[in-house]
């Protein structure tokens, strides 16, 4: 069995993931990033919905009760939270709007919706997303951290996938669970990140980590524990 196959099996198996239309959950977020970007408080407690087999996501209460954001790689929007929704504002090819950004460049609410949308889709669709068309994986060497040996899987995403950076590395424990993910945040001047996942929990046949913390990553690949950029805690998970 390949490392990729082992990871997918540990998270519930490809067949189970392909039966899922949406994953919905509540999140509490923290960390320094939101204040740096001038969007602190907006997503502190919000409801998120992602479509694992398609690159779609929604955040509710992005701009207040009765409104939501809608994300796809080619367009984000703020709209009313009803069916059919009324679109209030939108941004086509949103990634282009980050050209020239540094880590300190403020985000608009639509840019926040783009970042939050692709980020949560990336996190909550893994490892199933590693099997999508155009995504390539490669087994890398092992990594020692805190007395543990983790296997590493390099992941390369095609341009059609909205995510932090084309090349990312995931670190896998002896149970086949992803414990760490390294990437560079391209839309924030390539800021290097070491993203940790914990408290893996089974929900109706699939496994999701319910606690995440992201640190700045130094030049030696080590997390800078005094520089927490994002924390994410999720609960109230439901599959549809």
The CATH topology comes to outer membrane lipoprotein receptor (LolB), chain A
Name the beta content range: over 45%
This entry's quaternary arrangement is: single chain
> Over the alpha carbons, how many angstroms does the gyration radius reach?
17 Å
How many domains? The number is: 1
Q: What structural class is derived from the secondary structure elements? A: mainly beta
Number of helices in the DSSP assignment: 4
Question: In this structure, how is the largest beta sheet organized?
Answer: 13 strands, antiparallel
Q: At CATH's second level, what is the architecture?
A: Clam
Helix and strand pattern: HHEHEEEEEHEEEEEEE
The neighbouring-strand order within the major sheet is 6-5-4-3-2-1-13-12-11-10-9-8-7
Average per-residue pLDDT, rounded, comes to 96
What general form does the structure show?
A: globular
What does this protein look like?
The protein has a single domain, classed as outer membrane lipoprotein receptor (LolB), chain A (Clam), CATH 2.50.20. The longest helix is centred in the middle third of the chain and has 17 residues, at 109-125. The protein is mostly beta strands and 240 residues long. Helices cover 14% and strands 47% of the residues. The chain has a 13-stranded antiparallel beta sheet with strand order 6-5-4-3-2-1-13-12-11-10-9-8-7, with helices on one face. The mean pLDDT is 96.
């Amino acid at each position: 069995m390949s490392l990729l196959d082992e990871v997918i099996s540990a998270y519930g198996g490809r067949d189970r993931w392909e039966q899922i239309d949406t994953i919905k959950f509540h999140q509490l977020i923290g960390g320094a990033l939101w204040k740096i970007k001038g969007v602190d408080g907006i997503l502190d407690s919000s409801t998120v919905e992602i479509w694992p087999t398609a690159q779609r996501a929604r955040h509710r209460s992005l701009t207040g009760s009765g409104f939501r954001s809608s994300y796809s790689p080619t367009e984000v929007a703020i709209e009313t939270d009803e069916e059919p929704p009324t679109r209030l504002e939108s941004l086509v090819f949103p990634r282009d709007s980050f050209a020239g950004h540094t880590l300190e460049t403020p985000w608009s609410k639509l840019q926040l919706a783009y970042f939050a949308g692709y980020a949560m889709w990336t996190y909550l669709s893994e490892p199933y997303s590693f099997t999508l068309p155009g995504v390539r994986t490669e087994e890398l060497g092992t990594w020692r951290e805190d007395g543990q040996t983790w296997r590493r899987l390099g992941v390369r995403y095609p341009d059609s996938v909205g995510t932090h950076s084309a090349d990312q590395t995931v670190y896998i424990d002896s149970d086949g669970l992803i414990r760490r993910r390294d990437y560079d945040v391209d839309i924030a001047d390539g800021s290097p990140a070491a993203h940790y996942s914990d408290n893996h929990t089974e929900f109706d046949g699939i496994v999701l980590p319910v606690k995440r913390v992201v640190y700045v990553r130094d030049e030696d690949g080590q997390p800078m524990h005094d520089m927490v950029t994002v924390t994410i805690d999720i609960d109230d998970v439901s599959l549809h």
